[in-house]
Amino acid sequence: MEPTLEHPQPSPVETNRFTRITVVVPTYCEAENLPHLIDRLGKVREQSGLDLDVLIMDDNSQDGSAELIAARPEKWVQIVVRTQDRGLSPSVLDGMKRATGDVLVCMDADLSHPPEAIPQMLHKLEEGADFVIGSRYVQGGSTSDDWGFLRWLNSRVATLLARPLTSARDPMAGFFALRRSSFEAGHDFNPVGYKIGLEFIVKCGCERVVEVPIHFEDRLLGKSKLTMRQQLLYIKHLRRLYTFKFGAWSQLVQFLTVGGLGTLVNLVLLTFLLRLGLELKPAVALAILLSMVFNFVLNRRFSFGEAREPRWLKQFVGFMAACSVGAVINYVVTLLFVGMFGLRAQLAALVGIAAATAFNFVASRYLVFRSSHFRPPHDHVK
Ligand code: GDD
Ligand code: MN
After folding, report:
1. What averages of pLDDT result for each successive group of 10 residues across the chain (382 residues)?
2. Residue 51 C-alpha to ligand 2 middle, in angstroms?
3. pTM for this predicted structure
4. DSSP letters of 189-202?
5. Which of 194, 198, 201, 231 to mutate to test the pocket of ligand 1 (most atoms within 8 A of CB)?
6. Ligand of minimum distance to the alpha carbon of 59
7. Long-range contacts for 255-259 (Cβ within 8 Å, ≥24 apart)?
């Protein structure tokens, strides 16, 4: 047989040239913003020549959004009125599944995300990125100045917590693009709350995450739907993502986090009990006991959530028994440090807690919450 001639490899740009782009826009009561969004997307479409269509995923807002879209001349804009499984993340996921483009873009409807950044985001995908974020926190990116300190802090803390999952500077962003093939490679989608982009980065195994700077404009019309409840859901979401990515390792991290919170509870209670005039010994003992109950509830719910049995009493007794040994260690060490080194009660309690924590994790993991229900650990964790 004739040896086959080597063909020149097409450049990555050519192999990745996209033919169609679907922009998925989750909406709830955004009728005021939609005309502006469509106008701006229309300009981008014209100027770039991109074959771009828009899929508005509306959670039955009943604010005239559906009528408004029906009356628009643009054939490339569609609205889906959803009545089930409501919420931002489920809407986006639903939209991604319905989308027909070979690139999927997600953005908010409130004009916080500049549609003008889309061509540049696509360019990054063409250059080989797996996931492109319209980012506030890379050089050149910014957010509106009238953002309150609390929201800024909240966003920063949330980002920090996602750090083990991705090194992106702005993984919380709701403005992102990925290849359809990446989306289809994803599995076990189970998003709660608002951080659907982060869900895709982790579950689609996107490694090359690239950020394009944007100016995040605070919404001018309508109001934000981000509630306290959504913020709390983020913790739940993070837990799922950690378990997905790190398997058994995430248990240790969660256990330590719970332990950290338990430490706070312990210290606050101890201070409180001492203030109430309780003697040192009963105060230390009671603070330990109550923080153990606190730790049990959180560990059963989070750290070892997969091994949770419906009959909580058995696990509670097991946990308390196993940790009693830890508690004795804690008690003895704490008193020892007060007596021998003259440490303040609170400082000594910290040392006691550290000693007990190591013991408790081993006992909890391998005795109390030992269960066949654990997810098999990921390959790379072994
Ligand atoms: N379908 C649907 N269902 N859409 C929703 C829902 C819902 O329950 N809740 C909100 N949306 C839509 C809004 O209509 C808007 O288009 C978009 O989701 C974002 O909602 P906002 O209420 O404007 O959220 P935000 O500005 O506070 O949060 C944005 O920035 C965060 C980073 O600071 C979002 O992009 C978040 O995803 C992002 O994490
Ligand atoms: Mn917004």
Report:
1. 46 57 97 97 95 97 96 97 95 97 97 96 96 96 80 85 93 96 94 91 96 92 81 86 85 89 94 96 92 93 80 89 89 92 90 88 87 43 28
2. 26
3. 0.75
4. ----TT-HHHHHHH
5. 194
6. 1
7. 255/299, 255/303, 255/361, 255/364, 255/365, 256/357, 256/361, 258/295, 258/298, 258/299, 258/302, 258/303, 259/295, 259/353, 259/357, 259/360
